[in-house]
């Protein structure tokens, strides 16, 4: 594990490489979570994918000063744990969007502090690198943004038991091949 002193002794190029590496690791850790989140100094928004057709009455959601829990009735919770900082419960809300995701809006008690994570047991982000109003996906460079969007899509698909983008590509390639070779029998083919 690197220390701050160690970082100070690096050249500008080494620092940039380390920062990029840390940023990619952080993005990968965040993309693996069962939700996406964004924050302003005074609030945190958490978006949790749920099966299409989910309605408010299908959900069990607990919002407390230091606790957040979201799940579908009769199933394991999608997320459950201690919030990294306190929230104003009376000003925090949740809503179902397009019957396929839940938006949980959390009002921070301390509006002068960036959160490192939503739940204390989840991977942290480096809050020193946050630039106000600049922590949105649209601000990433094209390649990084594409990687993050793919990881988020694949993670969402897995959550819902659907094929990932790579699996969808394979299925598409197979369909094209089958269409190009109608004389071949694919009925007993096993796809891996």
From TrEMBL:
Which residue windows does the record flag with biased composition (Basic and acidic residues)? 9-23
Annotated CS domain ranges read 30-119
Where is this chain's protein located in or outside the cell?
A: Cytoplasm
Q: Which SUPFAM superfamilies match?
A: HSP20-like chaperones
Report residue spans for region: Disordered: 1-23
User: Would I find Aminoacyl-tRNA synthetase among this entry's keywords?
Assistant: no
A Gene Ontology molecular function term of the record: unfolded protein binding
CDD domains from the xrefs?
p23_NUDC_like
Q: Which GO terms describe its biological process?
A: protein folding
Keywords attached to this Swiss-Prot or TrEMBL record, sorted alphabetically, are:
Cytoplasm
Q: Which InterPro entries match?
A: CS_dom, HSP20-like_chaperone, NudC_fam
- Per its database record, what is this protein's job? Required for nuclear movement. May interact between microtubules and nuclei and/or may be involved in the generation of force used to move nuclei during interphase.
**What name does this protein carry?**
Nuclear movement protein nudC
Organism the protein comes from: Hypsizygus marmoreus (White beech mushroom)
Q: Which gene encodes it?
A: nudC
């Amino acid at each position: 594990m690197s220390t701050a002193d160690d970082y100070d002794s690096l050249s500008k190029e080494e620092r940039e490489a380390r920062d990029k590496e840390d940023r990619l690791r952080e993005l990968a850790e965040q993309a693996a979570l069962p939700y996406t989140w964004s924050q302003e100094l005074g609030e945190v928004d958490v978006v949790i994918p749920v099966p299409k057709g989910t309605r408010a009455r299908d959900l069990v959601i607990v919002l407390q000063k230091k606790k957040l829990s979201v799940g579908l009735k009769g199933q394991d919770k999608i997320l459950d744990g201690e919030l990294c900082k306190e929230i104003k419960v009376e000003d925090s809300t949740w809503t179902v969007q397009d019957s396929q995701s839940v938006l949980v809006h959390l009002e921070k008690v301390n509006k002068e502090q960036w959160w490192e994570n939503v739940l204390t047991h989840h991977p942290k982000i480096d809050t020193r690198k946050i630039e106000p109003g600049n922590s949105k996906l649209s601000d990433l460079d094209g390649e990084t943004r594409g990687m993050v969007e793919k990881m988020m899509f694949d993670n969402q698909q897995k959550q819902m038991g659907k094929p990932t983008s790579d699996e969808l590509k394979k299925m598409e390639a197979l369909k094209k091949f089958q269409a190009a070779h109608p004389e071949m029998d694919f009925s007993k083919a096993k796809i891996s």
